[in-house]
Design goal:
Blueprint: E1 3-6, E2 13-16, E3 23-27, H1 30-36, E4 41-47, E5 51-55, E6 59-64, E7 70-75, E8 82-86, E9 93-97, E10 111-113, E11 128-129, H2 137-145
Parallel strand pairs: 3-10, 10-11
Antiparallel strand pairs: 1-2, 2-5, 3-4, 4-9, 6-7, 7-8, 8-9
Length: about 150
Amino acid sequence: MRWLGGCQCGAVRYSVDPEQIRTLCCCHCRDCQKQSGSAFGMSLILPRRAFALEQGELAVWSHRSARGSAKHAHFCPLCGGRIFNDAGAASLLVSVKAGTLDETADLRPAAHLWTKRAQRWLRLSEALNYEAEPERDEDLDAAFRGDA
């Protein structure tokens, strides 16, 4: 069974295969704070093939990530709701904005990234915590699966 999601206005709808999710993390970098309009952003990392655009079209805004690499933000052109990020059309992974899923109550982050930018009032969960980005993505994947 695929998970469903979409933008605020409903013009964009998508589905993801939950069996292929590699990890779920909360990112506290300034980009995620500004994009979400909140203290952090939540992202599901999964293979591009596990994501399917079911309805609508996406616009793209390109910029540089904190690492300096290309980052492409895909969003609804009507309401501006960010759906996912990637490193370009050839990238094998996408980072879906978890808050755009229809059901979010049972999501549990495996890690918090860029905690050195976290709001001081925020109490972080017992997930893995990294001051910046982890050196190995495999650690995040293992934490999400419960192998860590």
